[in-house]
Each structure stands twice: as C-alpha cells, then as structure tokens.
Design a protein that fits this description.
single chain; alpha/beta; TIM Barrel; 41% helix
Length: 371
C-alpha cells in the first residue's frame, strides 16, 4: 500500500487478486490455523467466514473473546444518536429518509438542538453522535457547526454521520470541536452500489469510499466504517470491510479505526434485503473481524435484538448504542409523534437497562470518550 494511493485506487488495482483463499473444501483447516495465529492474513479471514464447521465457529468465538479482553478490557462504550435533520437529496432504495418517500421532514432549530442535548446529557452521556440526511441545503456546514458549538458545551466527544464532505469541510468541523466520523460505504460491490443509489450526490462511489481518508487527513481522531449488511453477499462485504479497515489502520496509525456491522431494518418504503444475513452469519462476521483486526473497535447498534446484542458482547463488540431513536428530535418528543424514522429500532431498552445488563455480565459501561 502506497501513501499516495487512495483506497479506491488500491482496490481497483488489486481487487481481482485478493481472493486467493484455500481451495474449496479446505476452509475449515485454514480457519483453525487462522484462529491459532497471532497475525492472520486476508486468506485466513476469508477462510473464517467461509468455514461451516460449528467447531471452528466456537474456537473463533473463544479467540475473539480473548483478544477483546486483552486489547479493550471489560469496558463497553455507550453512546446515543441525535438526529438533526431528515431532509435528503438522495434516492437510496433502502433508506427511510430517501427523497422519494412521503414523510414529515424537519430540521431542528438551535433551541431544539439545545433541548435535545440537555436531555441526552441528563441521562449521563458524555459523547454523542449527530446525524443528518443527505441534503446540504437543509443542513449546510454552517448549520452543523452551529449545532456543534452548542453540543461542545456539554459533550467531551462529538461524532458526525452526515453526507460526504471535502477535506477542508472536515477540517472546519474538526476546528469547531468534532473528533469522530461515522460513514458507511453501504455496499462495496460497485455494481450493487449503482443499483441502490438511484440519484443524488451519494451516487459517486469513489467520493463516498474516500471520505474516511479525507477526514483522517484533515485530523479526525476516530473513524468508523462499515457495510450495510443485506445489500451485497455478506462474506465478500465483510471481506472488503476488513480490508478497508486494515488499510486505514496502516495509512493512519495514530487514528482510532472502528467497524460497525449494521443489518438492514424495516422502514417506510418496505425495501427487502437482496442478501439474507442470519444471526449466525452476523456472529461469524464479528468473530472473524475481531480475530483479523484485534485492536479495531466494533460497534453494535440497536438495529439488533436485545438477546443477540447480549450474545455478541462476548465475541468482539466494544461499543453499543443505548436509548436510541432514529427520528429528528426523537429524544424529546412523544413516541407517537415520532413518525418519520430512518429505520425501525429493535432493542428498545433504555440506558439504565443496558447498563444493568452490562454490569450483570461483568462489563463496565462507560459513557464518556476521553480525548
């Protein structure tokens, strides 16, 4: 990997040479070797996600647990999302906020931002993730900066999940107090990417893919990436997510790189996943990522059911959302008024219930991201 080469250029050059895994039928043996290794390669990762042996899955889970405790201790960082706006100029077929959906649209006023932030702060959160739809006109950079100015009065860490920005725009937000970026490529398969992004700026695959590099070049402290599981074939999407995270780790060694593993959830347009991803598949993804990338954080959101989130704690997860809402201003409006959700939440436990569950399992819930 060359420092002057973007991940997109690296991917285009080497994409067809990556898949040199063990021959069909020999995945189990290679997967066992990968689990036992202190430094597995991409072939080992590919073997892990392809192995169908329950024994391999169990060994990988035990190894993932060991590596997580070794590198992160028994600490789980908690955060909650805060939606600023749901206006969107993109037509992404899987999203409840897409331009063509007939939903109530809203952008928070500064008074509403302050009210939401005061409520979230009162619950004990000291780090926060703010989100917008993909409409620059409804939530321009200056608007986001004004929101950050209010939030930094209370929160020690502010992350953004917004439309793709230029390097200079990321630098502007960093100067205002932002220190984290969450941005999903959604799907690494470029043909599927074109199929599911029908219009809008998000159609630009390369600009989206290069966003983490622009943010890190601008000085962003943390970046979280991921694929929206259910669009492309999950094994290959997991592979390219792992490759992308590995690339960012090598190119930006002083930054904190993490991965999210979101599965498609129901939303207003009733989009159905192209590729099914079972609970067992998700376990295999998380354990394989942890064994391949022992020092990368792994985030699990309230998209997943409570029992599955509890199970995945032991195989690699380091960060969880709690008390979540996916509608604009959702923390301070009545539930029946929250009619324009980006997607349906599955784990509806409140913050205290999540904290109690973690403590009962021997983990320490942490609500502050020290900088």
């Amino acid at each position: 990997m060359k420092k002057s080469e973007t991940f997109y250029q690296f991917l285009a050059k080497h994409k067809h040479s990556f898949f040199a895994p063990p021959r069909e039928g020999d995945f189990d043996g290679a997967a066992v070797s990968a689990v036992m290794s202190e430094d597995i390669d991409l072939g080992g990762f590919w073997a892990l996600v392809n192995s169908t042996s329950d024994d391999v899955v169990e060994k990988a889970a035990l190894r993932a647990h060991e590596l997580t405790i070794r590198n992160f201790g028994r600490v789980i960082h908690l955060y909650t999302p805060m939606y600023l706006s749901n206006f969107c100029d993109n037509e992404c077929v899987y999203c409840g906020f897409k331009k063509g959906n007939t939903i109530q649209r809203k952008t928070l006023t500064m008074d509403e931002v302050r009210r939401e932030s005061e409520y979230i702060y009162s619950k004990g959160f000291r780090n926060i993730l703010i989100l917008t739809g993909g409409a620059r006109g409804a939530a321009p950079i200056d608007y986001i900066k004004s929101c950050v100015k209010i939030l930094r009065e209370r929160f020690s860490s502010i992350s953004i999940e917004v439309y793709e920005l230029t390097t200079d725009e990321y630098r502007e937000l960093i100067d205002e107090g932002v220190d984290g970026l969450v941005i999903y490529q959604e799907v690494y398969d470029e043909d599927i990417y074109r199929k599911v992004h029908l219009s809008g700026a998000k159609q630009n695959y390369e600009f989206r893919l290069s966003a983490p590099e622009r943010a890190l070049s601008a000085g962003m402290r943390t970046v979280s990436i991921g694929a929206l599981l259910g669009l492309g074939e999950w094994k290959s999407e997991g592979f390219f997510t792992a490759l992308h995270a590995s690339y960012l780790e090598k190119m930006f060694p002083s930054a904190e790189i993490s991965i999210s593993v979101p599965r498609i959830r129901p939303q207003v347009s009733s989009f159905k996943p192209y590729s099914e991803v079972s609970d067992k598949d998700l376990v295999r993804i998380v354990t394989s990522l942890r064994v391949f990338l022992p020092r990368v954080g792994i985030t699990l959101s309230t998209r997943e059911r409570a029992y599955l989130r509890d199970i995945l704690l032991s195989v690699g997860v380091t960060r969880m959302s709690a008390g979540s809402t996916t509608c604009v201003g959702g923390h301070t409006v009545k539930k029946e008024e929250c009619r324009a959700e980006q997607f349906e939440i599955s784990d509806i436990r409140d913050l205290n219930e999540i904290k109690d569950m973690l403590r009962n399992k021997g983990y320490q819930p942490v609500l502050k991201d020290w900088t």
